[in-house]
């Protein structure tokens, strides 16, 4: 109702717990509709210009009933327009939903999202990229929708961008404490026309709790039953509100011990001290506030800070400890963001928003490399920062019989920075810096979005209950990359209040990362005998790394969705979507099988045969670190068989297609009890072409890549003071074709259970207290074994299947004041 009317409806989860609204059909004003929906529930509503506040009769009115309604805004992921119709499928998970699934932080939550691939950047992935292109650089957790890469999913906080993490253009979602979160909205559809670069696989918006009055304290302890993984988590939230403003402060401290190979029998081939899941210590703080500064003007501020310290050991051999031959890593990550905004109500139907963001994320990776028990310290620093300013205008253009035609338009600037420093200290030598640069990139952008209601409540007719059309476009200019224009069209057609069809088509893009644009160009002189079609046997100069100008990666996406909310079954919602992503110009190494590059016609443009001495000398002069000569002979620039240019460039293609299905059904058992059933399924097929002319190879369904199937579903029983939830999670199996014969990798099915008891008086006479008992992986499911030629690596696919095992935790939450 909120989305259709454009009004914000505010209520606490406690006020509506265990209650259900009746079906509603007909023509109503927004206020009339709410009165009809609340009839017989014991809830009361207060009506204001742009907001409706719902509360229980016994609850004391707080600031939600007193704040100026014309200063409220509605956060709708996937649109810049308040109350815009949804044309792309959206997954909405409240804080309660996340806890019911057994997750205690957002990093754990995204592993349960079927549309998300756990590979990419994930704390439990085998380090160093040993399993595909997945890694654990900084123990961060980044979304990777459709398995297109963490740099192809955009993550926002209250609608604004955050600083990138480490090397890729991903955002560490685990830096935001769950206690501060109201809900997470995920649109798994291309959204660059609305939000710009990175939103190829989709966009996730973390929406903070808008108000909090009082104080709440939470303590959680947990452990695995297989050893290791002990957890302590302490969080608190406090806030206060007044007539024209309010502030909320939330803090979270969490500590988890690492899990070693010696604590899991299925990892017995590894050194017992090898890390499967790193130990992590993290402190996070969020501050959010708003204040009316004048009539029809409101100032808002969101701020975050996070500090994380982790540690993991990677022995290089399964017969020697890490301190004999291996790598010990200690990533330290500090991130922050500050986002002020000013909202001005220009007229009854128009508003102006001016906002800015200052954010940063510094990953400081300390390491100790051991060879024959000799220690060599190393350090990698990746320092990202973001500066942004934006102005947006939104309102009603005109009135049609079907409703209001609405427009949103705006523009702004961003500045992205990256500093990289890589150093090591060889035994007995001074510290050596092997890579160091600082770079910035400016971005200018403008956007517009239009929502046109062709048919609505006032002019509906049989089989044409509602028809909405949307159009959006965005122009962005990136320094050293170029300009990109991205359109998006959407449609929502409701045959009746029960059946709706949505469709969207659009183009999206991802700018090359700052590291891709600035990585060092490398040159290696290799023996001629390594290459076929080299009869003279002269050395070959191989170029790799950066130095070649890069363009934006581009994608075309479309989705079609069928949504059912039958009035005959109140509380039932079914949704099925088909999605298609065609991704081109991906940055990649353009040559596969370097040894055959000289006689492969596909690489003719990348090979320069019999170069002159002047050409060879010019290429060597472009190498910041000079030439690495592995030819076995002195360099003779006049006798080089060929130059092979394998530097990164825009050559790869990728496709992702599939189906999503979701179902939710909530019904009452008497007046005070309810049952809620949920199910979410995603089926994915994806392929990749490394360079033009080469065949496509399968991604989804192969080892270290997303499986074809991911599902979860649960049942929740609720009554006034008690709630019980059981969730099932299924991660499909994959194929391992790295060596013949091809073999299958088994699937993973786990059960999670949560029991919640609430005591205390909602009228605040006595403190409200909650106790949660959670078991994750109730049956202690173990990941399937895989083939490994290197016994020091995990004998399972760590990018897909968890190694934690059964985990039991108890949480106590109490209202302090």
Structure description:
The chain is globular. Mean pLDDT is 91; it is low at 58-75. It has three domains: 2-66, Phage tail protein beta-alpha-beta fold; 90-512 and 550-590 and 648-815, Maltoporin, Chain A (Beta Barrel), CATH 2.40.170; 524-546 and 591-645, no CATH class. The longest helix has 9 residues, at 30-38. A hairpin with a 2-residue loop joins β10 and β11. The protein contains eight helices and 40 strands.
Strand content: over 45%
Number of helices: 8
Distance between the termini: 33 Å
What is the architecture of the largest domain at the second tier of CATH?
Beta Barrel
Structural class label: mainly beta
Largest sheet: 22 strands, antiparallel, barrel
Give the tally of β-strands: 40
Q: Which homologous superfamily in CATH is the superfamily of the largest domain?
A: TonB-dependent receptor, beta-barrel domain
Q: What is the count of distinct domains?
A: 3
Poorly predicted residue ranges: 58-75
Cα shape: globular
The CATH topology of the largest domain corresponds to Maltoporin, Chain A
Average pLDDT metric: 91
CA radius of gyration is 28 Å
Give a quick set of tags describing it.
single chain; 817 residues; Phage tail protein beta-alpha-beta fold; 3 domains; 22-stranded antiparallel barrel; 5-stranded mixed sheet; globular
Task: Please give a quick description of this structure.
The chain is mostly beta strands and 817 residues long.
Per-chain topology:
Blueprint: H1 2-5, E1 8-10, H2 13-16, H3 30-38, E2 43-47, E3 51-56, E4 90-94, H4 95-100, H5 106-110, E5 153-157, E6 160-161, E7 181-187, H6 192-195, E8 202-208, E9 214-224, E10 231-242, E11 245-256, E12 259-260, E13 275-277, E14 279-294, E15 297-315, E16 325-347, E17 350-371, E18 374-400, E19 403-424, E20 432-455, E21 466-478, E22 482-494, E23 499-510, H7 514-518, E24 521-526, E25 540-545, E26 553-564, E27 572-588, E28 607-609, H8 613-621, E29 627-629, E30 642-645, E31 649-669, E32 673-689, E33 697-698, E34 709-718, E35 722-731, E36 734-736, E37 743-745, E38 748-759, E39 769-776, E40 807-815
Parallel strand pairs: 1-3, 5-8, 24-29, 25-30
Antiparallel strand pairs: 2-3, 4-7, 5-6, 7-8, 9-10, 9-40, 10-11, 11-14, 12-13, 14-15, 15-16, 16-17, 17-18, 18-19, 19-20, 20-21, 21-22, 22-23, 23-26, 24-25, 26-27, 27-31, 28-30, 31-32, 32-33, 32-34, 34-35, 35-38, 36-37, 38-39, 39-40
